Amino acid sequence: MAGKQRELTLRFLAQPKDVNYGGKVFGGTVMGWIDQGAYALAAAWCGGYAVTAYVGGIQFEASIPIGALVEVEARLLKTGRSSMHIGVDVRARDPKDDASRAQRCCHCIVIFVAVDAAGAPLAVPVFEPMTAGERERAEYAERFMALRQGIEAERRAYLERW
Which end of the chain is more exposed for a tag (fewer CB within 10 A), N or C? Predict the structure, then answer.
């Protein structure tokens, strides 16, 4: 599927409504941006509606100040039968600075599932990595999902106990 969109970037300014009392963007706001960027890519890839099934490995590395130019970059990492694994990086910089000075503020993996009007999963086009970078990211997604299985086992054990 060489013609399908494999990545996209949303760009906007961090606004006063996005920040906490310390003048930094709320973590929940960043997570909303992540979901929007990942959804836009998932919808483009599957050509329909998709729902968030998982967000994992979210790591806040740096805060985002009010007025920063924010970039939410979503990349397709791999697909399953109905799922799309998307890596998302959030970067920010002073809009007066060169784009090469953008700092990564957050990274995570989001899994979307394509669904029909009744909410039943739909098959998605197969993602075939074409570049060395895409192959590396697909391998990263595989390793991440293997780790996720262990985390999920721990989560289930905890929930059964409490």
Answer: C
Cα dist from 50 to 18, 41, 44, whole Å:
26, 10, 10
CB 111 within 8 A of CB 84: yes
Tokens read off for 25: 């963007």
pLDDT on residue 4: 86
| Number of other CB atoms surrounding residue 119 within 10 Å | 9
Question: Do 28 and 20 touch, CB atoms closer than 8 A?
Answer: no
143: three-class secondary structure by DSSP = helix
pTM, rounded to two decimals: 0.92
Q: How far apart are CA 61 and CA 158, in angstroms?
A: 28
| Structure confidence by residue, pLDDT tens digits, 65-84 | 999 999 999 999 999 999 99
